[in-house]
Specification:
heterodimer; A: 4 domains; globular; B: alpha+beta; 4-stranded antiparallel beta sheet
């Protein structure tokens, strides 16, 4: 018994006790091959998955090393069967290689002939493989590179992609770290630098950083590394504008070099920012904007919020395997479970840092999460009790009783910028009237949105009520308080994104506050619990308070 | 030569004879009558085979050398001849090792006699017909082949001219055994017209000769032995084989020492650690398996064993593959943790028999023991069980799947096989980790005759040992080694019937358990609580903690530690089980090493607040009234006290008694209740006239006193029955006293001996006369029977009993007396 910080479970989870003196060293040692699943305050849970082990193998770690690490840090004896399984799984990666043959172009090469025979017989690969060149080599149609990788992953024999990348059309891009147009000089943060290096070394892949950790800058640095024309795919127009603003401020690019390809404008420039929506819009069943991918000889494709990548984009991405691809996201968890496609089509995870660690380094505003429980009035309870099942959540989430509580919370933070986030338009309008605050919702025009956001940033507007549009990619660094009144059922992702709104670093390092107002004893509480689980697993402990405490006079001893 | 071995044995001193019996204990079962009998038995095929089974490859090869160097006339050989032959190869072993092997053979009396005139005992040739894998000399096989072999130069030339495919066949036969089966048609002449397709044969004048076997037979390099037209077997003459073996020597490659393990040894610590980890898994899985059996017992099939479907289900629950689950099931059964239970009065339509497999009472004891002790019980059961779990899932001779716990997986040799494999590992240096192939090779060297055909079983043993944690990373663990030693010592103690030297029953944990205990984590009595409501127990929980967690949290992940999650449902379960909110709070506070998260406190309070908000119960009847005062009066009425009314609400009373009784009591007390049905509407009751159940009106019946009608056939039958009974009674009465056996004790005539009876019977056969036979039946009682003898022969009397019209057979030695019927 070594008394190490790690406990290896037979379901292939690793429990890391973080208060142990060796915890930090152990974390560094297991991070390459184990995926962080949960990081609550005392015991972090990592999981050994085939994808994770293959990621490690791709990064040059061998099975022996992984086994040694497990044994070295494990507090208890590690089951033999698990070690064998780890070694066997890792051994599967790279038995097949995709390579460039000078004579035949793209080929699938086997280091283990039996695997090639097994794989070649599979029906799933029918049509992807060309003629057999010799016992160990099969020609591959270049157009099938992505789909082949996808299929091989499903068969459990992930191929190592050594076929290289095209450089694309060169375009000079530099980081303007000295400060541009009279701006302050700045430098890339250490973890951003590491993320870019890891990505560049791997060629293609995903960088996982929490909201507010400066993913845009990682993208910009990657572009500066590639020095080539770049296609950036973002979730919506507002996010695209932010990218543009950030790129102009932080790199040598000028406004004329950056194009916007959205529902409103269709510009194709050396750096083009397109939305997922416009790319996946169809006219008469056909995707009409696919030409964009071929419009220029792109040297780099950046996918923002990769966990939201719509299914059609995967299909296009399968055709882009010769180009460098960078995925940026706060979480690899996809509600549709297509993590494997992200792995095979965009690339393995290249960099990951737990939120709390980055927060401790001071790059994210520390946040205090509070759940405020509102007791419904008897009339509300009665109408909730008799409501139809599908109406119940709406009834509970939009209870009028929440309004005074929200007001009280806003009043608690008179000097801060407050976002009130909700899912139901009617409720938002009520809130808007009650708090006398402007509303941003789906029907608000982009121009109006920009105006309101600018006003908020500048401090003109103190309180802003936003609908689901606020879930993604709006940069409102000054928001220090978020009050969530209703959400999309139990979406964990949404909770993470909303918390991300207030996690942008504050100018003076103030504490951020995240409130969730829920109705007691209703389905609202259950959904809230589900959503919070994700954040609790990320190490954000929730405090629960009663609405009465919020509404009543402030107790002298609090805080 | 039998006599000569017997003579030789006779000349031996007692100690040497005892040494022989010690080496070949099968010779004394049963104890031979004299030295000749001992000699005959020592040369019998069975005993020789047993002696050979235990020999290693090298000793067997030396025995082969002795057989080959025998003088064809006198049958003797000498140590010098053996040495000469054994050192003829390219890498000759040291003469001392050869002498050692010869001495081993002489100790076993497989070779006997003085050094210059060694004899090979007769049974050896019967047991293995081909010494050193060489065929018979050509002269014994076929004169034409012998002719070829007499000219070494020509033989060599023919060999060199053999086509590659024919040469491959020769090489295979030369390596032994020298006999091959020929596929049908391979010896036929090539079909006419096929000449162009087949390669030309230069030796045969350019004409192709067809298949390579045909080529060899045609050139007298192989001799066709027997078989139907076109097929059969061929044998390689000894001379040809010796020529082919000229590089390696006549005995083939000799290995005087066991093969060396090339795989690098592991670190002893990692071996133990991996094994210990596996033991925890095994114990946990076994416990899960038995728990699932407790919840859903597995029905026993009519043909024995547990069905494939049930096994799959359990494997799935455990997250194991079918094979591993089958092993655990077999081991748990062998360890006495699971057993059958008869289903009494079962009328269910289950497809199985009327037995189920359930955890036994011993399971409770096992569960209370420490991890290491639990493992030891399983490991001991595995080592000693006569079951080959690897057979489960395969198909038997009749192509039916072998099921777990069925009789088809029974193998009496299983413990020996396990022991042999583990001994190989135990004899290597600690933490040496040979590959399975190397282990098989070692086994093959140690006792080739035993290892042959058991490769699959040996591999299974290695896989099972790894699964049970006896080995780790391919090497025997330290505690596994201790367990093997202990069990071997226990075997030796078995010949100590009085238990004089015994210290096993002291109740102390064995050294293996103590060694394993040191490797396993100590139980912990605390956990870590986290904000995501997970409860992490950083080690195996002690039983009290495990019991508490079972109630208050859902199990999420197991292994070295265990992770549980507190949910609304689990808290509700705890409240149902009698915990109060305060109990839960204090439980979490007491057990947790970390502060209790506020979310958990809220969850407990929330659930507790709602718990019991609805109350459910049953009652025999209720009384309701809109008049609360009236109900109060009923409740207070002393006459209604026996009804035990309870006030549920101001307007409702309930009673455990039935409505009818309550109605009567209320009416008797002067109230005017109206009964209600389930929907709340009043039930109106009018007095009903009582009636007995409907009956059939009387019809004409048969007079029981009237005389029965007797038709003629029935009458005749009755008469015959009577006559038969009469004859039987007469016969019984008339058995002579001599025959009845009573006279033998009282009378002076024991002289009526067996031979007299035989004479009477023989005469009766000739006369076809009736005879009274007295005999001792299978139970030792004397009986007598009147029969007509039919024949006497082979120690049996066959006779006809006229009364029962049956043919009886009597053993003559059981007949005590015979008397003619007159």
């Amino acid at each position: 018994m070594s008394g190490g910080p790690l406990i290896v479970q037979s379901d292939k989870t690793l429990l890391l006790e973080i208060d142990h003196p060796d915890a930090q060293a152990c974390r560094m040692a297991i991070a390459p091959f184990a995926e962080l699943e949960r990081s609550p305050e005392h015991v972090h849970t990592y999981r050994l998955t085939p994808l994770g082990l293959w990621n490690a193998r791709a990064a040059g770690h061998d099975a022996e090393g992984v086994v040694d690490t497990l044994i070295k840090y494990s507090r208890y004896p590690v089951p033999h069967a698990l070690l064998v399984d780890v070694a066997e799984t890792m051994d599967r990666y790279g038995r097949l290689q995709l390579a460039n043959d000078p004579a035949h172009g793209l080929v699938l090469r086997a280091l283990d002939r039996m695997v090639l025979i097994e794989v070649a017989k599979s029906k799933k690969l029918a049509g992807m493989l060309g003629p057999k060149l010799d016992d160990d080599t099969i020609q591959v149609h270049p157009s099938e590179r992505g789909r082949l990788k996808q299929a091989l992953l499903k068969l459990g024999w992930p191929a190592e992609d050594l076929a290289g990348y095209v450089d694309g059309e060169a375009h000079q891009i530099d980081l303007a770290e000295a400060g541009k147009d009279g701006g302050k000089p700045w430098t890339l943060r250490s973890y951003q630098r590491e993320a870019v290096e890891a990505f560049w070394a791997g060629g293609s892949g995903v960088v996982v950083l929490p909201c507010g950790a400066g993913k845009t800058l990682v993208g910009a640095a990657a572009m500066a590394e590639a020095k080539a024309t770049t296609l950036i795919l973002v979730t919506n127009t507002v996010a695209g504008r932010q990218w543009k603003r950030e790129l102009i401020a932080r790199t040598s690019l000028t406004e004329a070099e950056i194009g916007e390809y959205s529902g409103e404008r269709k510009e194709i420039r050396p750096v083009t920012i397109a939305t997922y929506q416009v790319l996946t819009s169809r006219k008469g069943g056909a995707f009409t904007h696919l030409d964009l991918f071929g419009a220029r000889d792109w040297g780099l494709v950046i996918y923002d919020e990769v966990h939201l990548l719509p299914a059609p984009i995967f299909r296009f991405t399968a055709d882009l395997q010769a180009r460098r691809r960078l995925g940026l996201t706060a979480t690899l968890v996809r509600e549709d479970g297509r993590e494997g496609d992200v792995f095979s089509l965009i690339g393995p995870k290249r960099y990951d840092a737990p939120w709390k660690d980055i927060e401790q380094q001071g790059w994210i505003a520390p946040a205090e999460c509070t759940e405020v429980r509102v007791t419904l009035t008897d009339a509300e309870r009665l109408s909730y009790a008799t409501a139809e099942a599908e109406e119940r959540y709406r009834m509970a989430a939009t209870a009028r009783t929440k309004l005074p509580v929200v007001r009280a919370l806003v009043d608690r933070h008179p000097d801060e910028q407050v976002l009130v986030i909700g899912g139901y338009i009617d409720q938002l309008h009520q809130l808007g009237e009650y708090l006398d605050a402007p509303i941003v919702q789906g029907s608000t025009t982009n121009k109006e949105r920009e105006r309101l956001f600018d006003a908020f940033r500048s401090g003109e507007v103190k309180t802003l009520v936003i609908s689901k549009v606020g879930n993604f990619s709006i940069d409102l660094p000054e928001a220090a308080v978020a009050i969530q009144v209703s959400g999309t059922f139990g979406s964990r992702q949404e909770e993470a994104q909303r918390l991300g709104r207030v996690l942008r670093p504050k100018a003076d390092g103030r504490q951020a506050h995240f409130y969730t107002v829920v109705s007691r004893d209703t389905i609202d509480t259950e959904y809230a619990a589900h959503r919070q689980r994700f954040l609790a697993e990320q190490g954000y402990a929730y405090t629960i308070v009663d609405a009465d405490d919020v509404l009543g006079p402030k107790l002298p001893s609090v805080d | 030569m039998t006599t000569s071995l017997a003579d030789h044995l006779r000349t031996l001193p007692d100690e040497s004879l005892a040494a022989l019996l010690q080496l070949r204990p099968d010779l004394v079962v049963p104890v031979p009558a004299d030295v000749s009998a001992l000699a005959i038995r020592a040369q019998s095929r069975v005993s020789v085979a047993r002696a050979l089974d235990g020999l290693d490859q090298f000793t067997l090869q030396i025995l082969d050398a002795a057989r080959l160097t025998r003088d064809p006339e006198g049958g003797g050989t000498s140590v010098e001849a053996i040495l000469a032959m054994a050192t003829a190869g390219a890498h000759p072993p040291a003469p001392t090792t050869i002498r050692g092997a010869v001495n081993r053979l002489r100790a076993l009396f497989l070779l006997y006699g003085p050094e210059h005139d060694l004899q090979v005992v007769g049974g050896v040739d019967e047991v293995s017909p081909y010494p050193a894998g060489l065929g018979r000399p050509a002269a014994e096989l076929d004169p034409r082949a012998a002719a070829v072999c007499t000219d070494p130069a020509k033989l060599r030339r023919t060999l060199l001219s053999a086509p590659p495919s024919a040469r491959a066949i020769l090489d295979r036969l030369a390596a032994g055994p020298p006999v091959g089966t020929v596929p049908p048609g391979a010896l036929d002449a090539p079909a006419s017209g096929a000449e162009d397709v087949l390669p030309p044969d230069l030796v045969n004048g350019g004409a192709p000769t067809g298949s390579p076997i045909r080529w060899l037979v045609e050139h007298r390099l192989l001799v066709r032995m027997s078989g139907a037209k076109g097929g059969g077997t061929v044998e390689l003459p000894r001379e040809v084989a010796l020529l082919l073996r000229r590089d390696s020597g006549p005995l083939g490659p000799l290995r005087s020492a066991p093969p060396v393990v090339a795989s690098p040894p592991r670190e002893a610590k990692s071996v133990d650690s991996a094994g210990a980890g596996q033991t925890m898994e095994v114990v946990r899985h076994t416990e899960a398996l038995l728990d699932s059996l407790a919840v859903e017992p597995a029905p026993v099939l009519r043909s024995g064993g547990v069905g494939v479907r049930d096994l799959r289900r359990m494997a799935r629950n455990l997250g194991l593959d079918d094979g591993s689950a089958a092993l655990l099931f077999e081991v748990a059964y062998a360890a006495g943790l699971a057993g059958e239970l008869d289903l009494t009065g079962s009328s269910s339509a289950r497809y199985g028999g009327d037995q189920q497999i359930l955890p036994t009472a011993g399971y409770e004891v096992w569960r209370a023991a420490s991890l290491a002790q639990r493992w030891e019980q399983l490991a001991r059961a595995w080592l000693t069980m006569t079951r080959q779990a690897g057979l489960v899932g395969q198909r038997d001779d009749r192509d039916r799947p072998i099921t777990v716990l069925s009789a088809e997986a029974e193998r009496a040799s299983a413990p020996t096989v396990r022991r042999a494999v583990l001994d190989v590992l135990a004899d290597l240096a600690p933490a040496a980790a040979p590959t399975p192939e190397e282990v098989l090779e070692l086994l093959d060297w140690r006792a080739p005759r035993r290892a042959r055909g058991r490769e699959a079983a040996h591999r299974e043993v290695l896989a099972e040992a790894a699964q049970l944690g006896v080995t780790g990373l391919g090497a025997l663990t330290s505690y596994g080694r201790l367990l093997l030693t202990e069990m071997a010592e226990a075997d030796e103690r078995a010949d100590d019937p009085l238990g004089l030297r015994s210290d096993a029953e002291s109740g102390e944990p064995s050294t293996a358990v103590r060694a394993l205990d040191a490797l396993l984590p100590a139980p912990v009595d605390h956990f870590l609580l986290q904000a995501d409501l997970t409860v992490v127990v950083p080690g195996p929980p002690d039983p009290a903690l495990a019991g508490e967690l079972d109630v208050v949290a859902e199990h999420e992940s197991a292994g070295g530690a265990s992770v549980h999650r507190v949910t609304t449902a689990s808290i509700r379960r705890a409240l149902d089980a009698g915990y109060s909110a305060d109990d839960l709070h204090s439980l979490f506070r007491r057990r947790s090493r970390t502060p209790v998260p506020q979310g958990l406190t809220y969850l407990v309070d929330d659930v507790a607040r709602k718990h019991g908000g609805l109350r459910v119960g049953s009652a025999g009847g209720y009384v309701r009234s809109d008049d609360e005062a009236l109900l109060t009066e009923v409740l207070a009425d002393k006459r209604l006290e026996p009804l035990a009314f309870r006030r549920l609400a101001p307007t409702v009373l309930v009673t455990p008694y039935l409505v009818q009784r309550m109605l009567t009591a209320l009416r008797d007390a002067g109230y005017a209740p109206v009964p209600e049905d389930a929907t709340g509407s009043a039930v109106l009751a009018r007095p009903r006239t009582r009636r007995a159940p409907a009956r059939m009106p009387a019809t004409r019946t048969v007079d029981p006193l009237a005389a029965p009608r007797l038709p003629l056939p029935r009458l005749l039958g009755v008469v015959e029955q009577i006559r038969r009974g009469d004859a039987a009674a007469r016969a019984a009465r008339r058995a002579p006293a001599v025959v009845r056996g009573g006279a033998a004790r009282t009378g002076p005539a024991p002289a009526h001996s067996h031979s007299d009876a035989l004479a009477v019977l023989q005469q009766a056969v000739r006369d076809k006369a009736l005879v009274w036979v007295g005999y001792v039946d299978a139970h030792g009682a004397t009986a007598s029977r009147l029969v007509r003898p039919v024949s006497i022969g082979a120690g049996y009397l066959r006779a006809e009993d006229e009364r029962t019209e049956m043919l009886h057979t009597f053993a003559l030695h059981r007949i005590t007396a015979a008397v003619r019927e007159d």
